[in-house]
Design goal:
The chain has 4 helices and 7 strands. By secondary structure, the chain is α+β, with helices and mostly antiparallel strands. It has one domain. A 4-stranded antiparallel sheet has the order 2-1-3-4. A 3-stranded antiparallel sheet has the order 6-5-7. A hairpin with a 4-residue loop joins strand 1 and strand 2. Helix 2 packs across helix 4.
């Protein structure tokens, strides 16, 4: 009986663990601006510690949503990589961000995320603009 109780508790913990979900491009709506998410190079996602998933059509929507919901605890901050056309999600804290007037994003902030810092630097050299890490990006949008 004790083994069954332990197994049940373990199963409950695994079933409730907050996990990211794939974005259904062309179907899912942005939880900030309500536009349909179609751009695989600018999308983003948040997952709360309780497992609720929020999806965004642009990183700037995600950042603004975070600023308006500071009381919510998030377990995952995810963004897509501009250099990839696959639409896969990467940990936002590990990415590099470029704000460039020569590289537009869906909501007009000209904000693009890169999983690889060297590729971000290459785009900066070509397109100009300013590079940010996750925390400096939050500070930039808090102004």
């Amino acid at each position: 009986m004790r083994l069954l109780t332990t197994f049940g508790a373990l199963l409950l913990m695994v079933a409730c663990s907050p996990e990211p979900q794939p974005i259904a491009y062309g179907t899912d709506f942005c939880d900030f601006c309500r536009m349909t998410i179609v751009d695989k190079q600018h999308a983003a996602e948040l997952v709360t510690t309780k497992g609720r998933v929020y999806k965004f059509d642009a990183i700037e929507c995600q950042v603004q949503y975070l600023q308006q919901h500071q009381e919510v605890e998030f377990s995952h901050f995810l963004v897509t990589d501009y250099a990839s056309t696959e639409g896969g999600l990467f940990a936002a804290e590990d990415c590099t961000y470029l704000i460039s007037p020569n590289l537009s994003s869906p909501m007009g902030a000209n904000l693009t995320g890169f999983a690889d810092q060297k590729i971000a630097q290459q785009f900066q050299a070509e397109k100009t603009g300013e590079l940010y890490d996750w925390s400096s990006l939050q500070a930039h949008f808090a102004k």
